[in-house]
Amino acid sequence: MIELRTAAQIEQMRPAGRFVAEVLLALQAKADVGVNLLELDELAHQMIKDRGAESCYIDYHPSFGAMPFGKVLCTSVNDAVLHGLPFDYVLQDGDLLSVDFAASVDGWVSDSALSVVVGTPRQEDLDLIETTTQALAAGIAAAQAGNRIGDISHAIAVVAKRAGLKINTQFGGHGVGRTMHGDPHVPNDGKPGRGFKLQPGLVIAIEPWFLHTTDQIYTDPDGWTLRSADGSRGAHMEHTVAVTEDGPVVLTAR
Ligand code: MG
């Protein structure tokens, strides 16, 4: 079921968006060569405690997950692109890291993700992050009342295809509200003019993610982490966005 929020409720959702943005900024600042993924998770966990927020991940146990997630953060490195379960791994020079974080503040969820390279970047990784960033911006720009979900999906896909990337539509954006994942699904490719008509009060996570040379993924033996089928690297950018009378509002803006 797709739920619409009042303007007052969208105002109530802003603190969660700001908090998620603050955590991602702190993670971005801390992520560096020599830092353990578990330290990043601990930093996010401490910020959750300090803020009196609630993790959306720690008890998360959907049908596709082998067990409750157990961490507060997704850390996906190199050929991992989504749902990366933090483990005892020290970041190496040139690693491409994606962090995805969702938390609830005052009963409202926000969800956001970003990718960075630690240490010396490969140009191809910077290009992939840039394309993913541009795809997110295009998707947000299409989140206008009167448009349809397919317009967002199409806008994202145009940017990716221009860069020669393949698109996996199995995992994409979603409604956000009292819980992390609601309707509608917001795929990263679709037909313009198709799907649910966007209305003021719709709050969705828009989250393009792409791999260099494939659209195929598999699940790591950890039961969560999604990796590229061919070992190529991935990038992921996500914001929680409210559709309003005045256009899209990025609740997780950094
Ligand atoms: Mg997310």
Number of helices: 4
CATH architecture, please?
Answer: Alpha-Beta Complex
User: Low-confidence segments, ≥5 residues, pLDDT <50?
Assistant: none
Q: What is the overall shape?
A: globular
- By CATH reckoning, the class would read Alpha Beta
Arithmetic mean of pLDDT: 97
Q: Give me the strand/helix succession.
A: HHEEEEEHHEEEEEEEEE
How much helicity do the residues have?
25-40%
Bound molecules: magnesium ion
Strand content: 15-25%
Query: CATH-wise, what's the superfamily?
Result: Creatinase/methionine aminopeptidase superfamily
Give the spatial strand order of the biggest sheet: 7-6-8-13-14
Number of domains: 1
Summarize the biggest pleated sheet: 5 strands, antiparallel
Q: What class would the helix/strand composition place it in?
A: alpha+beta
Query: Could you tell me the radius of gyration in angstroms?
Result: 17 Å
The tally of strands reads: 14
Could you tell me how far the N terminus lies from the C terminus, measured between alpha carbons in angstroms? Answer: 30 Å
CATH topology: Creatine Amidinohydrolase
Describe the 3D structure.
The protein is of the alpha+beta class and 254 residues long. The protein has one domain (7-250): Creatinase/methionine aminopeptidase superfamily (Creatine Amidinohydrolase). The protein has four helices and 14 strands. The protein has helices at 7-30, 37-51, 123-141, 149-162; strands at 54-55, 74-77, 80-82, 96-105, 108-117, 173-175, 182-186, 203-206, 209-211, 217-219, 226-228, 234-236, 239-244, 247-250. The strands form four sheets. Strands 7-6-8-13-14 form a five-stranded antiparallel β-sheet. A hairpin with a 2-residue loop joins strand 13 (239-244) and strand 14 (247-250). Helix 1 (7-30) runs antiparallel to helix 2 and helix 3 (123-141) packs antiparallel against helix 4. The longest helix is centred in the first third of the chain and has 24 residues, at 7-30. The two termini are 30 Å apart. 49% of the residues are buried. The mean pLDDT is 97. The structure holds magnesium ion. The site of magnesium ion has 6 residues, from strand 4 and strand 5. Magnesium ion (MG) binds next to strand 4 and strand 5.
